[in-house]
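Annual report, structural modelling task.

Input specification for the pyridoxine-5'-phosphate complex:
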Amino acid sequence: MTRLRLGVNIDHVATIRNARGGAFPDPVRAASLAAAAGADGITAHLREDRRHISDDDIDRLVREIDLPLNLEMAATPEMLEIALRHRPHAACIVPEKREERTTEGGIDAAGLHDRLAPLVRALRDNGTRVSLFVEADRRHLDAAKSLGAPVVELHTGAYCDSRGADRQRHLAAIREAAAYGTQIGLEVHAGHGLSYDTVAPIAAIAQMRELNIGHFLIGEAIFVGLEAAIARMRQLMDMARDGVHQ
Ligand code: PXP
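The model returned the following structure:
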């Protein structure tokens, strides 16, 4: 099976920094450690309220880190201007509500088609690879395709938060969406809420090309260090790809 890329989301290093308003811990240092630990990319969400990652963080990530940057962004004129200026390797369009604790669902790619079209086009024309963060639902994959976005990232939050038969149902939907997305020519990624306990079935999906993981890794880093946490996640992903069951 193709090697699965791991994008490490460093937002919550900035959450801890911002709790005291100073300069540490530094998310750019986390990005550099992630690179040393075998991450394939760095993911950061510049939220409209700047609750974790700041404009200066994005500026430094672009200048100081060699790994490809995946900028998560809301579909707003302000974020578009920032993305066009920094020209990250990839931009993942996410829905954003100020009152939410984290990105709660996928973007309504089908319903927002006409609003998203100029944004996707502007990013693409500027050389950024656009991905849409969507629920595992064919309607949104079809919309991504018709918008000309080359990538979809499937939301794994509901799969991670559920148990038993419910989790199996969410997993089946993610599998089906990965197969369908690939069939219509999209590259399929996944992320949100993944941990050591939930990553293997997602990593084992043959069509999957990239996982973006943050909160769990930053939490685990408190106990074992960031490099060890990333190395363990990488190992679990590789074992799942190789059909090794833990
Ligand atoms: N992918 C997307 C599109 C996200 O919005 C997030 C959360 O910022 C993640 C992946 C990573 O999720 P988590 O921090 O729960 O691992």
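Residues 9, 11, 45, 72, 92, 94, 102-103, 133, 153, 191-194, 212-216 surround pyridoxine-5'-phosphate (CB under 6 Å).
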